Amino acid sequence: MKIIILGSGTSTGVPILGCDCPVCNSMEPEDKRSRPGIMIIKDNFNLLVDASQDLREQLLKNKIERIDGILITHAHADHIFGLDDTRMITKKYKKDMEIYTSVDVEKQIRRVYDYVFNDSQEGGGKPKFIFRDVEKVKNIGPFELKLFEYYHGKLKLKGYILDKLVIVMDGSYIDMNNYKLIKDNGEYIIINGLRTRPHPTHFSIPETLFFVKSLNYKKGFVIHLSDSLTHKDLLKIFPDNIIPTYDNLQVTI
Ligand SMILES: [Zn+2]
Ligand SMILES: [Zn+2]
């Protein structure tokens, strides 16, 4: 499968509005971190993981015009506020957009996107969503799907394993049972690592590195980055098989 990191940044994006730190002022393209998003491609099936506010620009930059399914991790703004942008894709391909998520996250999306589900005027068109409960599906297109659970602060989220790729988008705690599930079923991981200092709802970079090293995987990719270190500085502290991601990074695993 091919992985395209559409957005490597945390909810604020980097540069952060009003921040004058060296990372936010950096001119290096790897230090411009848009909100989180991943495109995973296998057998010509384009699976999007999370739809941030930056989705439209991310798709344009990567020349991706078709999405075959969307996997949503949770309903925070930086993971669902781009869903409206899918309406032009639905229109072009005349197929409703399949959104794979938990029943709980579906409820929250229905509330946020109230206009999509009520009988208000069409205007410039509305996105068309079909929800698929991740508890009830074993496959998304060509991908095999397995679930686990983790915490984002106090929120319990569903984690996803696509074939051998584990995705922890906004984690801060994983219990031993779920750790074992991940260790036994994965070979690669995309996981959040926010900043050098600890944070109440996200793993810090030292926590993430420690966690990924303990898995003994082939490769790890760290996403959902804030502005504490430049890409060059991240490279200095990361071991060879753990990659600090940046926008538009493409890898085949
Ligand atoms: Zn987030
Ligand atoms: Zn900054």
Describe the protein:
There is one protein chain. With 253 residues, this protein is an alpha/beta fold. The protein has a single domain, classed as 4-Layer Sandwich (Metallo-beta-lactamase, Chain A). It contains 8 helices and 14 strands. The strands form 2 sheets. It has a 7-stranded mixed beta sheet. Strands 7-8-9-10-11-12-13 form a 7-stranded mixed beta sheet. α8 (231-237) links the parallel β12 and β13. The chain starts with a strand and ends with a strand. The model has no long low-confidence stretch (mean pLDDT 96). One zinc ion (ZN) is lined by residues 11, 36, 76, 78-79, 170, 224. The site of one zinc ion has 6 residues, from loops.
Give the gist of this structure:
This protein is an alpha/beta fold and 253 residues long. It has eight helices and 14 strands.
Number of domains: 1
Count of extended strands? 14
| Category by helix and strand content | alpha/beta
Portion in helices: 10-25%
* Backbone CA Rg: 17 Å
CATH fold call: Metallo-beta-lactamase, Chain A
- What ligand molecules are bound, each kind once? zinc ion
CATH superfamily membership, which one?
Ribonuclease Z/Hydroxyacylglutathione hydrolase-like
Q: Give a short account of the largest sheet.
A: 7 strands, mixed
Determine the N-to-C terminus distance. Answer: 6 Å
Q: Which blocks of ≥5 consecutive residues have pLDDT under 50? A: none
**Structure annotation, total helices:** 8
